[in-house]
Amino acid sequence: MMIRWSSTGGTSGEFLKISSLFRIAAGLCISSFLLVCTCAAQTAKNGDASPVLTAAKTELDRDFGALKSETIAPYYLSYEIIDSNTVTVAATFGALVQSTAGHHRVAHIDMRVGDYALDNTHQLRGKGAADEVGSNGMVTLPVEDDPLPIRSALWLETDRRYKRALTQLAAVQTNNQVNVEQEDRSADFSHEKPEQAVEPIPEMHVDRKLWEDKARKYTAPFHRYGDLFNATATMMADQEVRWFVSSDGSRIQTSTTYYRLFIEASSKAPDGMELPRYESFAALTPQGLPDDATVLKAVDKMIVDLKALQAAPIVDPYTGPAILSGRATAVFFHEVFGHRIEGHRQKNEEEGQTFKKMIGQPVLPTFLSVDFDPTLKRYGGVDLVGSYTFDDEGVRARPVVAVKDGILENFLMGRSPIDGFPNSNGHGRAQAGFEPVARQSNLVIINSKPISREQLKQLLIAQIKEQNKPFGLFFDDIQGGFTLTGRTLPNAFNVLPIMVYRIYPDGREELVRGVDLVGTPLTTFSKILAADDEKDVFNGICGAESGQVPVSASGPAILISQIEVQKKAKSQERPPILPAPLTPMQGGAK
Question: Torsion angle of alpha carbons 487, 490, 493, 497, nearest 10°?
C-alpha cells in the first residue's frame, strides 16, 4: 500500500518501493497508438523555446507589472508548468490488465508579498496556525500549446494567489506579534542567480505491443503455483517537461524521462502474515532496462524466496549485531540521515532538528562520507532516477558534500534560508503542482576503508561471540521505510525488510521473517563499525510534504554492533480455503 506522509504530524517522508509511482498515474486514457510522443517534443525538439514557455513568460511579465501598482505589491512571482506524458503496461499471471497512455499539464505559482526577509510564506506558529490561511493547491492547464488558454488559466490563478497572499501576510504579521521570538531569524527567501536554459525535448517512444508481450511473459511463471498472489509486472514510461519563469529573470525549459519495470508477488504464511517480494529496475532510456533472460531469472528467484518464506521461522524482538546489505544501507541512510539534513527542517520549530547544531562535528565514522549529487546520472553501472538539471525553484542542480570523513558539512537547501546557509544548493523539489521544499536527490555513501563481504561477515561473527548473542542478523533486501522527524512523536525510523537471515556463530545462515528494523538516529550511527567494498543502488520514490519525488541512494554493506528489530504487523486472515484454479496437470481444480 502506498502511503503519503505529511510533516505536520512529524513524519518527514517515506522511501517507497518503485511501484508507488505506478499508483499515482491517475486519469490515464486508453490509446490505440503503439508510439507515444509528447506534444512539447514536436514544438521544441531542436532546442527552440516551446510556445508554452513563451506564453508563461509573457503572462508573468504582464501580471507582475500590473501588480506593481498595488499598495502592497508582490516582490517575487514564478510559474512552473509541468507537462507529463505517461505510458503504463501491466499484466498479472500472464494476462494483460492495463495498457494506457496519459497526458496532463499542471502549474505551480509562487506568489510572494512582503520582502525577502519576511513574506506571506513564513511559518505560522502556535496551535491551529497552519490552518489559518489554507493551502494554494495546483492549477490544471490545457494540454494543447495554444498560448491564449494557457495565459488565461495563469492570469486567473495569479489573481487568486495574490489575494490569498495578502491574507497570508496579514496572518504572518499578527502571528509574529503574539508569539515568542523565533530561534532561526534567517530570511524567508533567498536571492539566487537567474538562469537561462532552453534544452531540447526529445520524443518519448514506447512500443506498447512489445511491452504487453513482455509483461505477460514475466508474470506467467507465477501461475504455476496456487499459493502465490498478486503477481504483477508493470512497466511505466514517464516524461516530464518542465517550464520555469520568474520575475527575477529565470527562463528554463528542461525534461526528464524515466523507464521503470516493477514486478511484485506475495504469499501468505500459515499464521496469516503477508509475505511480499519485489524486484524493480529503472533506467533513463528503454535500452537501460534488463533483457528477458535477466528479468525471468529474477522472477524465478522471487518464486524460490516466496516458497522459502512460507516455512521460515519468525524472529522475536531482538537487539544485537547486524549487517545491512548495500540496498538496505541505502534506504537506511535515506531515512535516518537524509531527511534530517533537509534544510527547511532546521528552521521549522515543530521538527526535531537532530543535526541543526552539529555542523563541523562528527556524525558518522571517519571512514564514511555522504554526497548528494543530482547531476550524477549513473553510479555503479546503474541509472539514477534522482538526477535533474534544475530544481523546482529554478536553481541549477549541483553536488553537495553533506558529510566528509564523518564530519557534517552541509544541509540540503532550497530557497528557504536557515542560519548559516543563506542560499540554495539546488535541492528545492516537489511533485508536479506542490510547494517545493528541500528534498534529497542522489545519495552516495563513500567508504574510504573498504573490506570484503567475507571479512564483514567474520567481523559480525566476532561481535556475536563478544556480545554472547545466539546469532546476528543480515538484512539482504528491503521494500522501503519511513521516518519520524518531529518533536511530538518519537524521533525514530522504521526500515521494512523482506529478506532477513540469522547468522550463527559457526557461519550458518537461516532465512527468517516477521521483523522490522527500528531505532533512533544518533544511537544507531554511533554503532557503525565497518563497511564493505560494494556499491548497491536503490531507486525509488520518496513521499513527504512536497509530494512524491524520484530519488536514488547507493551504499556499501555496513556492520552495526547493535540494532533493534520489532515484530512486523500481520493479518489475522487465513490463507485461501478454496484451491487455486490451476490446470489439471498442475494438480488444481478443474
Answer: -150
Task: Give the sign of the dihedral formed by CA 552, CA 558, CA 562, CA 564.
Answer: positive
Place of cell 542560519: 419
CB 74 within 8 A of CB 115: no
Q: Pairing relation of β-strands 196-198 and 251-268?
A: parallel
Query: What is the DSSP code string of 263-324?
Result: EEEEEE-TTS-EEEEEEEEEESSGGGSPPHHHHHHHHHHHHHHHHHHHHPPBPPSEEEEEEE
Query: What secondary structure letter does DSSP report for 109?
Result: E
The residue behind cell 525549459 is 253
Tell me the three cell numbers of residue 463. 561481535
CB distance 588 to 580 below 8 Å? yes
Pairing of strands 515-519, 407-408: unpaired
From the list 561, 564, 329, the residue with the least C-alpha distance to 465 is: 561
CA distance 19 to 21: 5
Phi, psi of 306 (to 5 degrees): -65, -40
Per-residue pLDDT of the chain (590 residues; tens, 9 = 90+): 222 233 333 344 444 433 333 333 322 222 222 222 233 334 444 568 899 999 999 999 999 999 999 999 999 999 999 999 999 999 999 999 999 999 999 999 999 999 999 999 998 887 555 544 445 678 999 999 999 999 999 999 999 999 999 999 999 999 888 887 787 889 999 999 999 999 999 888 899 999 999 999 999 999 888 889 999 999 999 999 999 999 999 999 999 999 999 999 999 998 888 999 999 999 999 889 999 999 999 999 999 999 999 999 999 999 999 999 999 999 999 988 999 999 999 988 777 788 899 999 999 999 999 999 999 999 999 999 999 999 999 999 999 999 999 999 999 999 999 999 999 999 999 999 899 999 999 999 999 999 999 999 999 999 999 999 999 999 999 877 777 777 666 677 777 889 999 999 999 999 999 888 888 888 889 999 999 999 999 999 898 889 999 999 999 999 999 999 988 777 777 778 777 776 544 544 43
Whole-Å CA distances, 137 to 119, 418, 432: 19, 25, 11
Grid cell 503572462 is found at 59
Alpha-carbon span 222 to 212, nearest angstrom: 17
DSSP calls for 407-420: EE---B--SS-BTT
* CA distances to 367, 410, 464, 505, 530 from 459, in Å: 16, 32, 9, 11, 8
Query: What sign results for the dihedral spanned by CA atoms 384, 389, 392, 393?
Result: positive
Give 508-546 as a 3 state SS string.
CEEEEECEEEEECHHHHHCCEEEEECCCEEEEEEEEECC
Cα separation, 304 vs 567, whole angstroms: 24
- CA distance linking residue 22 with residue 24, whole number of Å: 6
| CA dist., res. 517 & res. 319, Å (int) | 10
Calpha distance 445→328 (Å, rounded):
12
